[in-house]
């Protein structure tokens, strides 16, 4: 099976992170807006399209903050993710002023319940995937040096 590239948006405004809300048997969890790169798209085009589809927002794309791999067979969800190998590129983004109301977009993610702003002061209390990214994001915002490549993490 092929390795999939994915572009993700780290949208931080007013000390909150914008995330997509989902639910499973363990309760609510959150993922970053964004998704799979289509043939012929560059990562910025992918991210702009995905943000409109999932969160109904035009975004301005900034720096690439983190890259993570997700090799499903190596993580807790291996029972249904074992065939997945994905490389995610996480970009710092801003919602462009004048965007429509943020919420579910035209093509929400599978299982998407809604969109929420998560307070950074409570970020470690939320099940946000990738979970290891939460601490790196908080370190980045605090002005600390962070790695770009996070490895095969969840």
UniProtKB/TrEMBL annotation:
Q: Which cofactor does it need?
A: Mg(2+)
Q: Please, which domain of life does this record's source organism belong to?
A: Bacteria
Ranges for domain Nudix hydrolase come to 1-141
Q: What keywords tag this UniProt record?
A: Hydrolase
Asked whether the keyword Hydrolase is assigned, the reply is: yes
InterPro entries, alphabetically?
Answer: NUDIX_hydrolase-like_dom_sf, NUDIX_hydrolase_dom
Q: PROSITE patterns given for it? A: NUDIX
Q: Which PANTHER family match?
A: GDP-MANNOSE MANNOSYL HYDROLASE, MUTT_NUDIX FAMILY PROTEIN
Protein name in UniProt:
ADP-ribose pyrophosphatase YjhB (NUDIX family)
The record lists the organism as: Cytobacillus eiseniae
């Amino acid at each position: 099976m092929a390795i999939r590239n994915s572009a993700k948006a780290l949208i931080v405004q007013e000390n909150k992170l914008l995330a997509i809300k989902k639910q499973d048997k363990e309760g609510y969890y959150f993922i970053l807006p964004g998704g799979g790169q289509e043939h012929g798209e560059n990562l910025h085009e992918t991210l702009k399209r995905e943000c409109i589809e999932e969160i109904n927002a035009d975004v301005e794309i900034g720096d690439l903050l983190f890259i993570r791999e997700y090799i499903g067979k190596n993580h807790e969800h291996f029972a249904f993710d074992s065939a997945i190998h994905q490389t995610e590129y996480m970009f710092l983004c801003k919602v462009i002023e004048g965007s429509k109301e943020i919420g579910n977009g035209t093509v929400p993610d599978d299982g998407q319940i809604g969109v929420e702003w998560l307070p950074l002061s409570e970020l470690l209390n939320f099940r946000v995937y990738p979970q290891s990214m939460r601490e790196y994001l908080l370190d980045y915002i605090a002005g600390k040096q962070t790695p770009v490549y996070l490895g095969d993490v969840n």
